[in-house]
Every structure is written in C-alpha cells, then in structure tokens.
Amino acid sequence: MSVVGKDELQYCLHTESLNIVSDDEPKLVGGMSVRVAMRTELRGPPTLIVCVESSGKISGSRCGTVISARLTMRLETIEQHVQEFVKVR
Prior knowledge:
By secondary structure, this protein is mostly beta strands. The protein is built from 1 helix and 5 strands. The protein has a 5-stranded antiparallel β-sheet with strand order 1-2-3-4-5, with no helix packed on it.
C-alpha cells in the first residue's frame, strides 16, 4: 500500500522538459521530457499515465528511449512499455 495520498499525487501531475547541451561547444545535442497525467476510465478507478522521452547522440548517431507506464493510485505498475532507437547513417 502506498503512503502517498491522492491529494499529494496532484503535485506530480505536470510536464517537464530539459534541453541537453554539449560540453565541447554550446549547442543542443538532445533533450528529455517527462509527463505525468491522471486518466479516468468509464469503468474502473482512475490511473496515472507516465511518459518519459529522451533523445541525444552517440558517436554522431541519433538515439533515444521512450518509456510509458500506467500506474494505480497506489503507484503499482499496471503496464509498462520501453522503446529504444538508434538512427544509423
């Protein structure tokens, strides 16, 4: 059982993003975003939807990860999907 109350979960419902800049030269090389939202169904209790996306470069090739999950209000995982990609020249 989660010790986090429903009122406290409201503070987690938002979207954030972060730009990743290279140390070598001041240019954008990637980014990351996080989105947490509440989803209400016609049937069943509400759930939390969490989506995290990151992208960047490794040895000049674009790459990234997308993680999405659906959680109960007790923060138990119902389902989770992970997708990684690399764009090769």
